[in-house]
Amino acid sequence: METVISQTGNASVFKEKANKILGVNLQDAKISKSYLSVAFIALLIGGTLGLLQGLNRAGLLELPSWLNYYQVLTAHGLLLVVVFSATFTIGYFYAGMSHTLGGLLPKVRTMVWIGFWLKIIGVVLVVIPVLMNKASVMYTFYPPMAADPMFYFGLVFVVLGVWMACFGGFIQVANWRKNHKGQHLPIFSFFATGVFVLLVGATAFVAVEVIFMIIPWSLGWVDTINVMVARTLFWAFGHTAVNIWYLTAVSAWYVIVPKVIGGKRWSDLLTRIVVIALVIMNITGGFHHQIVDPGISESVKYMHVFMSLAIGFPSLMTAYAMFAVFEKTARKQGGKGLIGWYKKMPWSDVRFLAPFIAMLAFIPAGAGGIAQTTNQLDQVVHNSMWIVGHFHLTLGMSVAMTFFGISYWLVPYLSKRVLTKGMNQFGVVTTVIWTIGMITMSGAMHTVGLFGSPRRTSYTTYFDNATALSWDPYLIFLAIGGTLLMIAAIMQVYAVFNLMFFAPKGETEFPIAEVEDGEAKTPYWTERWGVWIILMIIVVAMAYVIPLTDFIVNAPPGSPPFKTW
Amino acid sequence: MNQKTFGLGLFIFLIIPPVANLMESVMIIHMHMQMPILVITGFLMAPFFQSKFSRFFEKWNHNGIPGILLFIIIVGYWMLPRTMDEALELWMVELFKFISLPFLAGVPLRDSWKKLEQAGKNTVIIIFSIAFIVMGWLYINATMQLCNNYLLIEQITLGWGFLTMGIAFVIFLGYRFFFNPSAYE
Ligand code: HEM
Ligand SMILES: [Cu+2]
What we know:
Radius of gyration of chain A: 23 Å
CATH superfamily of chain A: Cytochrome c oxidase-like, subunit I domain
Distance between the termini of chain A: 55 Å
Strand content of chain A: under 5%
Number of helices of chain A: 17
Helix content of chain A: over 70%
Mean pLDDT of chain A: 92
Number of strands of chain B: 0
Largest sheet of chain A: none
Shape of chain B: globular
Oligomer: heterodimer
Bound molecules: protoporphyrin IX containing FE, copper (II) ion
Distance between the termini of chain B: 31 Å
């Protein structure tokens, strides 16, 4: 919707134009740079902890008593699945909102800074008890395992910080729409809106769980907790969170990657429908993490298979859309043959290569997900290393590698620098190492999981049990993959800070693809966010009322807190 | 596939006995999933009737009010516990359910909604918000079984279903009230 400029004649147009010519707004860039810095520091620390875990699982490293496996695992999970992903997402979308909506409002800037510091305080409060071995509850913090209350207060601050960023985004978008009546929100900001709506929806559940159930219980104000309700609220959040990170990656696939390869976007209308569908249907998918949980009747679980597969539909549409864009672009540039056109893709451009491999990874990752959402198949892999292999493919490959690919243009854009040939080469090498590492590690995890190796368990041979010993060769591969990943993580973080502070000065473009010429105008109903949010609430209500009523009305006595470590 | 055939296909799918049985085996799914989807199938099939009987709709439903009243009556009827029970016991009533919800509720809803003024639309939503909250309160607090075919726990579940939907409607009304779309569109 780049035609915005020529269509209107008010003051903000001038600002937008100025923005495009002068490049990034420096105050806004500082926000995004801060968020991205935190993200990549979290990646470095989290990756290091991941390596420790990998080496331990292979029996190569005994962790000291002051930093045991479960402390490391709790920190690894939180740093990567919460801190890295959330801060990257916010930094990235704020950069794009500033770019496509004509600079952030001062009020919004203040909000997102407050959010930043709330999150930092929150993470510090979470990390302290973990380091003191008072919160080895993993990132899922399932009751009845109880951590030090400080851990939960930290989580509350993190959520408050996220809310600040989300509501800042809503204000920014509402203001733009007031000044651009009747126009469609630029596609990048449309994705941002969807992501922020989902973030508020998802974190609302975990806020209820933590504030109204866990904190009173961990402080001793109430004696017991309803474990099933807590788990259900957690997964409404946890599932949606990872889908939000995925949607963030998808936004780059739809909006950025076509531009990088010199092509046009896929259908604007269908892109917006994918966002809307994911926003409406996402939260209820949380139940597929509870397929093996007691207390949910078979028929309800059965119906939730549909809800999970329903989310698969927009994902498949995405795969189709992407390959359609690739082929179209390549053929325009002279690519020929049934598959010969692929030679025309810019394989040596890291800004394309990284997200492309990320998309490819989503094929096995999505297939694995569909397998896991099937009751009988999940019985085999539940709580095994297979699951860990699965989410390292989805998050560690599809999401993380798209984020890496984004960083090679976003960071120079923000810091008014350029991506040199050498740095691009460096990025390609990083991408290759990360890919090999992740294939090795995740392949080993998937396989050893099928043979029964449990997740979340530090190295043990179970008194030299033959089955457990048979896992060892695979676990060695896990460690090898983990080592490669660590190398790539260090390279990636180096690249980010180099691009932020040392790369040659210059202007880098924020690559947003245009729609195909002559595409029909997108109908206005796609902008009715109020309606989408109400539909989301109704779908959530339909999905959650049956099990939650059952858990509460037929509740067991409840559980006191336990410290199991 | 256009809307009309999709609606017809969905309608046929819903009346296949195993599908109908499965949906009717859970009270809340019977009332809050099967019945609304039946209405939706009628909504989707409506253009067929609107073009076939355009004179009829024009004559009897030119301002949308008769149609919306019919919709409210039919849907209101199916919100009563007794009617659900009967649908499970008497095949005549079951048949009536499968005919009335799509054709006497879904079709008139589509024909009327566009014709209603904003105030009319809001009134309809307000009526249903109140009805849902009252029904929710009733189902949650009734201490005895209201349906022979469903247990007390299912009734409580349905009550919460009503209440949450009612809340969603209220949020929607609030959104309509506080956000003036003409400021954005
Ligand atoms: C240097 C790269 C990485 C290595 C070597 C690594 C390794 C591992 C290992 C060995 C486990 C523990 C398995 C277990 O005992 O259950 C694990 C868990 C996990 N990893 Fe990674 N990982 C890496 C990167 C990532 C990334 C990029 C993400 C997400 C963005 C991620 C998210 C997670 C999560 C959520 C868990 C589960 C924690 C839990 O079960 O509580 N990891 N990782
Ligand atoms: Cu999930």
